[in-house]
Design brief:
alpha/beta; Amidase signature (AS) enzymes; 11 strands; binds glutamine
């Protein structure tokens, strides 16, 4: 039978499978049919896992037929960002230097998805090593936004958002170091959850900025996001920074009444939305929350203005250290033009890293070098502490913070790719949650000239359940998530 993947959610697909409306092979084949038809336009995938996926689907069908207990993500097709390690499958980080890298083990998030019965459709594009906000830094060319193919699907997890919005899968994993899940979510009418730092294990991610990196979820509804978070969250002995805290039932928490929820609007986040139509979408969304019984309060986070500057000192510093392992000896495709040991290092790295990775290595090495360390890196760490304390303080008075995701809807491909600073400024609303380690969620909130606009909810540490239930009530009161990109 013909399945319309775009109309399905994880929840409805599970229902369809259990009630024999379609088989899992039908479901997975429907994804690959769409990929064959439309991925030449969207360029979401870097590699496909079709043979294994069909085999896994047959196993699901066998379980269903036999009446065996179904696992929580039984037969659900998902896409995985290519900075997340997958055993036996290419993992390139969208870089030339890892072009032929096949990991020996899975990241914990992948292990957990597989244990829950999910089916991996393939690996999706991103900015090289997740450095960027548009996928234009991918060594394999940019992904395109299914809502308007001339535009970016966001970044760095833009392959994840493009694949999901195009109907190539039912959910996608991304990583968020400084916005890379939330912003692509916002630009593609999707939920994008950056969890609390430590809520989901980082084991098996190709590290970018270890102190802010976190894997997370792109999904179509709050319910699907909650379902995935329940599976992915929790302590992992392989990641010393993963939190031992108990994992709540995020799904049953969705029903928590919204009445009386205190929503803070930090005024600094509303001062420079460059697009008045996006500002109007956000203000209408705030009105919906009020109608639903939320109490809206105006708050202030005066150090927000230093977020970008702090992030773009700390990130290159950690990047320059984390990319050190790609030297053609420990990891990375070795240059064939090298005659001496020094040339092995310099040519391997010189030939195979893209311009943005090189820029970050140089900036990072600079801010960490003796004589500059105190002036840049140490200062940035101090301001990071101030930003963190400030947002924690404000979150004592309110339950969540509501802000825009981006100053405007998806940018045109090529619009900012020549100007690194302009690209960095795209992250203006993203760095607070990243630096403070608190959760942030993009929520579909409407459209401007046919392009999706998202709002961001930020919450207390481990406050994911509150974000998801607030979003769930908003979603039920609006119809944004029922709209799909036309390819
Ligand atoms: N745009 C940000 C950067 O380029 C965020 C990237 C990310 O979250 N991976 O650093």
């Amino acid at each position: 039978m013909k399945i319309d993947i775009q109309q399905l959610t994880i929840a409805s697909a599970k229902h369809g499978l259990q009630n024999y409306e379609f088989s899992c092979v039908d479901l997975v084949e429907a994804c690959f049919d769409r990929i064959r038809m439309h991925d030449k336009d969207a360029h979401a995938f870097l590699s496909l896992n079709e043979k294994q996926a069909i085999q896994d689907a047959k196993e699901t069908d066998r379980r269903i037929k036999k009446g065996e207990p179904l696992r929580s993500l039984e037969g659900i097709p998902v896409a995985i960002k290519d900075v997340i390690m997958t055993q036996g499958m290419p993992t390139t980080a969208a870089s030339k230097i890892l072009e032929h890298f096949i990991p020996a083990h899975d990241a914990t998030v992948v292990t957990r998805l597989k244990e829950a019965g999910a089916i991996i459709v393939g690996k999706v594009n991103c900015d090289e090593f997740a450095h960027g906000a548009s996928t234009e830094n991918s060594a394999y060319g940019p992904s395109h936004n299914p809502w308007d193919l001339s535009r970016s699907p966001g970044g760095s997890s833009g392959g994840s958002s493009a694949a999901l919005a195009a109907g190539f899968c039912l959910a996608a994993l991304g990583t968020d170091t400084g916005g890379s899940i939330r912003q692509p979510g916002g630009w593609c009418n999707l939920y994008g959850l950056r969890p609390t730092y430590g809520r989901i294990s980082r084991y098996g991610l190709i590290s970018m900025t270890s102190s802010t990196d976190t894997p997370g979820i792109l999904a179509k509804t709050a319910e699907d996001t909650a379902l995935l978070l329940s599976i992915l969250a929790g302590h992992d002995p392989h990641d010393a920074t993963s939190l031992p805290s108990e994992v709540p039932n995020y799904h049953s928490a969705l029903a928590t009444p919204l009445m009386g929820l205190k929503i803070g609007l930090p005024k600094e986040f509303f001062e420079d939305i460059s697009d008045p139509k996006s500002a109007e979408v956000i203000s209408q969304a705030i009105g919906v929350f009020e109608e639903l019984g939320a109490e809206v309060k105006h708050v202030s986070l005066p150090h927000t203005k230093y977020g970008i500057a702090v992030y773009y000192v700390i990130t290159p510093a950690e990047v320059s250290s984390n990319l050190g392992r790609f030297d053609g000896v420990r990891f990375g495709h070795r240059s064939t033009n090298a005659n001496t040991l020094t040339e092995v290092y310099t040519k391997t790295r010189g030939e195979n890293f893209g311009p943005e990775a090189k820029r970050r290595i140089m900036l990072g090495t600079y801010v960490l070098s003796s004589g500059y360390y105190d002036a840049y890196y140490k200062k940035a760490q101090k301001v990071r502490t101030v930003i963190t304390k400030e947002v924690m303080h404000v979150l004592n008075d309110v339950d969540v913070l509501l802000t825009p995701i981006a100053p405007h809807p998806a940018i045109k491909l090529g619009e900012k790719s020549h100007d690194p600073l302009a690209m960095y400024l795209e992250d203006v609303y993203m760095e607070t949650a990243a630096l403070a380690g608190i959760p942030g969620l993009s929520v579909p909130a409407g459209f401007v000239d046919g392009l999706p606009v998202g709002l961001q909810l930020m919450g207390k540490q481990l406050g994911e359940a509150t974000l998801l239930s607030a979003a769930h009530h908003y979603e039920k009161a609006t119809n944004w998530t029922t709209k799909h990109a036309k390819l």
